[in-house]
From TrEMBL:
Entry GO terms, CC: cytosol
Pfam families: Hydrolase_3
Organism: Sanguibacter gelidistatuariae
Recorded GO MF terms: magnesium ion binding; phosphatase activity
InterPro entries per the UniProt record, alphabetical: HAD-like_sf, HAD-SF_hydro_IIB, HAD_sf
Segments forming a coiled coil: none
Name of the featured protein: Cof subfamily of IIB subfamily of haloacid dehalogenase superfamily/HAD-superfamily hydrolase, subfamily IIB
Length: 264
């Protein structure tokens, strides 16, 4: 395979180990790519505030596509750009319809400047204690990259199906692995779309991109990239779609696949 110009990798379940850590082996490989001028792009469902743990792993020019493609973040500085959020009127209607169709639903907003959650929203995903808790429809005065939804009284699969039926084409539902959490972005917003847009702006073709992932929200990115890798622990659909399979996230699969690029 030709040496890539860009390595695009998901974080949770892919580059990071199951405990959320980045191994010394993986850090060494990322540093080696940086030394050779191969651009590393983290492509993640995480919001910008969750990048602190990896900020020192991609050199001085590391980049992250966050919120499933809703914004681009300079990892070293935290600067946010290329925000692709919901239309406020459309989001207002989606929120109203979800509340009507699914009584008791708890909603959250992920904005580049921080999250906002319904008072009854319960999260096990590192919601900062300082995050405002209020009816989310009263906080649509800034771009919203992702709408979150939970309903503990429904099984996850049934809940996702119900949410998808309510939102229709007005939002895009993604599954990144958090059980019972429906994650919605604006139509046309995805990891693949954001990565393709960034690559086009930097004269990088899909053939020059290696992409790594583990969950269904990675599939569009994996099918777009010239070379795609599923980690061994990936969802079955991802294992079937990727052009190659590497070791699991806990066995440094991404690093193993990239180490050959660093050989003398």
């Amino acid at each position: 395979m030709a040496t890539p110009r860009v390595v695009a990798t998901d974080l949770d379940g892919t580059l990071l180990r199951s405990d959320g850590s980045l191994s010394a082996r993986t850090r060494g490989v990322l540093a080696g790519l940086d030394d050779r001028g191969i651009q590393v792009v983290f492509v993640t469902a995480r919001p910008p505030r969750w990048l602190d743990a990896v900020a020192d792993a991609v050199g001085g020019h590391g980049l992250a596509i966050c919120l499933n493609g809703s914004c681009v973040v300079e990892v070293a500085t935290g600067a946010v750009s290329q925000v692709r959020g919901f239309d406020a009127a459309t989001l207002t209607a989606v929120i109203s319809d979800l509340r009507s169709a699914l009584p008791g639903i708890a909603l959250g907003l992920e904005r580049p400047d921080g999250p906002i959650f319904d008072p009854h929203y319960a999260s096990d995903h590192h919601a900062p204690p300082s995050a405002p808790h209020a009816a989310v429809e009263d906080h649509l005065d800034a771009p919203v990259g992702k709408l979150l939804a939970r309903l503990g009284t429904m099984a996850p699969d049934a809940f996702f199906a119900a949410v998808e039926q309510v939102i229709g084409p007005r939002a895009q539902l993604a599954y990144s692995g958090a059980i019972g959490l429906a994650e919605m972005t604006a139509p046309g917003v995805s990891k693949a779309a954001a990565l393709a847009r960034w690559c086009a702006a930097h004269d990088v073709s899909a053939a020059d991109v290696w992409a790594f992932g583990d969950m269904p929200n990675d599939l569009p990115m994996l099918t777009w990239a010239g070379t795609s890798f599923a980690v061994a622990n990936a969802h079955d659909d991802v294992l079937a779609a990727a052009t190659r399979v590497t070791a699991s996230n806990d066995d440094d699969g991404v690093a193993r696949a990239l180490e050959g690029l660093l050989a003398p």
